[in-house]
Amino acid sequence: MASLAAAEGLSLVFKGISEFEKGFLLASRGVIRGLINPLLSQMNLAEETTTPVNVLDSACGTAVFTQEIQDTLPKAVLAKSTFLCTDSSEQMVNIVKKRIDGEGWINVRTAVLDAKNTELPENSFSHVGIGLALHLIPGPDAVLADCRRILKPGGMFGATTFHSDNKFWIPDMRTAFASFPFDAHFPEVVKMQMHSDGDWTDPTWIGEHLRGQGFADVQVKLNSGTYHLRDADEFVTTFGTMIGWLMNTWWDEETRKAHPAEEVKALLKSHLGEKYQGKGWDVNYLVICMTGRVEK
Prior knowledge:
The protein is α/β, with parallel strands linked by helices. It has one domain: Vaccinia Virus protein VP39 (Rossmann fold), CATH 3.40.50. The chain is built from 14 helices and seven strands. Strands 3-2-1-4-5-7-6 form a seven-stranded mixed sheet. Helix 11 (about 230-240) crosses helix 14. The longest helix is centred in the last third of the chain and has 15 residues, at about 260-275. The chain is globular, with a radius of gyration of 20 Å.
C-alpha cells in the first residue's frame, strides 16, 4: 500500500515539473533508495520505533532520507514527530516541497540552509542524516561540527558516502563513450570524492575520523547491492546528471559544442539497447553507512 500511495503521489508531483526534476524524482523512488535505506536501521529508525523523533535531513537533495523514514515509521509516530529538510540549493528544496504535498508526507518542513552552518538552534534534533554528500561538500568537518551542535545529548548522526570501489553507472557509461563515432574522452579513474578533505570513500578512515571528531558509539558498515534497470531509457533518466558532469569536466569546449547532451543521450541509449539486446540489466553499488552518537 505504501508503494502504491508513493506512486500516486509521484504522479501528482510530476505535473508541471521539468524533465531534469523528473529524473531526480524517479531516481529517488528507484536506485537511490538502496543507497540510503540501510542507514535507517543503523540509526534505530524502524517499523518498531515507538518514540517520536525530531529529524534533520541536511544537504537533503530530493530528501530520500526523509522519504525512507516516512515509508518506515508507524503513522502514529510520524504524527508526533517533526522533520526538517534543508539544502543550499533552492531548486532541490522546491522539489521537496512538491513531494511533501504530492506524497502526503507528515510533519515535514523545508528551508534553504548551508549544511556547514545551518544556524539552527543547539540541542534541537534527535537524528541528523546526510545522504551521499560528505564526499561532495568541501570542508565536511564543518558539517560534522554543525551536526554535533544541533543534536540533542544522545542524538544520532548518520550519513552515507560511496566506497572507492563503487562501480554503479561507470562500466556502462565507459563502454558507451568508447562506442561513440568521435573522441569522447572518459577518465581512466572516476573518483568518488570531489574534494581533498580526508577520505570519505574509506570505511577505516571514516571510523577513525568520526571518533576523532567527538562522536561516540561509531559504526561504519559497507553495504553492497544491485539495482535492476528496466531498459536504456531508465539508465539515461536515472544517471543523466552524470552525462552532463562528464562532458563539462572532461570534454573540451569544441567537443561539447559539436556534440550536445541530447546527441550524447541518444548515442548512449542506442549503445545500451544493443549491448543488452533491449532487455534490462543490473548495476552494482557499494555504499558506506556511518553512524555516531553525540554525548554532551
